[in-house]
Amino acid sequence: MTNWYHGSSTDFDSFQHQQYDTNGHSQGFGIYLTQSKEVARSYAGTGKGHESQGFVYHVDTSKINDMRQLDPEQITMTQEDVVQILKSITEVQDEYPYTLVDYSGNPDLEVGWNEENEEIAQEIAFNLLEDEANDLDVINELRNSSDESEAVGRGLSQAMIGSAPDWTQVDSEGHPALVVFDPNNLSIIEKESVHEPQPVQEQTIQPELTADDAEYLSTLSEIELHQ
User: Whole-model pTM?
Assistant: First the structure.
């Protein structure tokens, strides 16, 4: 069993969809994991305003074991994979199918998933696979154009796609990081704080001197000087 870790300055009990590029990763949206606990520690407690805390999460990735990985260097996705993601996006856009309209240029599309929208999605999927250089470019294009991280992640899961290797983040053993697209496929095994609480130093409060105390101390000082 491979151990995977996630470092964060945020204390949480379950993974959630993150906003694009919040962690500065070039691979786009998703939850980033590493096999190195030390690498995870380097990402914990580094956020602005979070210098006094940080957490390393030991993560269970068993749900994605039987899922496919995307390729960051070439296209391996099928047209049906992309259509599944477009379907997931369209189903949450219950007021207007903005994403299909933006790609197709047809403003008269109906809400929901129907035969006409599926035909348009097939055309959109074909064009995306022709235009983009690799799998991650495809899904990040869909995520950025729709602003629907959760729907894209769910569509990928429905297409049995769970993750991608991230060769831009390699640990000391040469293992790539892993980006997981749907946080519902992850669970936390253990959470560890990377900052020990600082001990509180006791302060000694000096009592205020009365006039008699001050005169007495002054007398002692004069006696010591003449001895």
Answer: 0.79
